[in-house]
Amino acid sequence: MPLTTIARVLAAAGLALAALIGTTAVPATAAAQDITWYTLVGLGSTKCVDIRTEDADYGARAQLWQCYGSANQRFALRRVGTTPQGRPFFQIINKEAPYLCLQVRDNSTANGAQVDQYGCSADTHQYWYWGSPHNGVHLPLVNLNSGKCLDVNAGAVHNGARIQQWTCNATAAQMWRTAQ
Fold first, then answer.
1. Are both 7 and 88 inside the same structural domain?
2. Which residues belong to any copy of the Ricin B lectin domain (predicted)?
3. Which of 1, 15, 20, 154 is the most exposed, fewest CB within 10 Å of its CB?
4. What total number of domains does the chain contain?
5. Is the same domain home to 25 and 94?
6. Which residue segment(s) compose the domain that 18 sits in?
7. Cβ count near 45 (within 10 Å)
8. Under the phi-then-psi rule, with left for phi > 0, alpha for psi from -120 to 50, and beta for the rest, what region is 92?
9. In sequence order, which residues have a C-beta less than 8 Å from that of residue 4 and are 6 or more positions away?
10. Residue 25 sits in the same domain as residue 41
11. CB of 131 closer than 8 Å to CB of 18
């Protein structure tokens, strides 16, 4: 094959690849704009899961706070997979820092382990699923790694109450709903 023919074939292949890359990037951008952001509202307090703005991004603690809809109280639920029981599990991504996900600190399985945010990864301590319904609206959020529920420490209802994991017990401190 003459050199000019090879050059034309390679040029055509390069253009086809560039066109393919160009057309697949547009839907990805559009999909990012279609993210739905929610607040996670507690049954026991009617307050929201909130990321402490006083903390650094990485390791910032989750707490309970009066709902006011700011970015540090808004989360997207990014589906990651399905449990063996058929329940979808997901990462909970913070709008204030969309590269950070809610997680159980230090991959802990202990009661009382702090829930905070850290760089999103494929670690199961960042994966959550909805547990069995309480009243049709409020559900427990269960950590895939520990099997324990997102919980407000001691059932507190005040601003700044610590968010942790605890053995699932169907109390109001562990029941959540999403709101837009």
1. no
2. 36-179
3. 1
4. 2
5. no
6. 1-34
7. 20
8. beta
9. none
10. no
11. no
> Which residue type occupies 45?
S
Question: What are phi and psi for residue 156, nearest 5 degrees?
Answer: -60, 155
Q: Select from 123, 137, 119, 127 the least CA-distant residue to 165.
A: 127
Q: Do 2 and 58 fall into the same domain?
A: no
pTM above 0.90, yes or no: no
Q: Do 40 and 30 share a domain, yes or no?
A: no
Per-residue tens of pLDDT for the chain, all 180 residues: 454 443 343 333 333 333 333 322 223 333 455 799 999 999 999 999 999 988 878 999 999 999 999 999 999 999 999 999 999 999 999 999 999 999 999 999 999 999 999 999 999 999 999 998 877 789 999 999 999 999 999 999 999 999 999 999 999 999 999 999
Contact (CB, 8 A) for 133 and 175: no
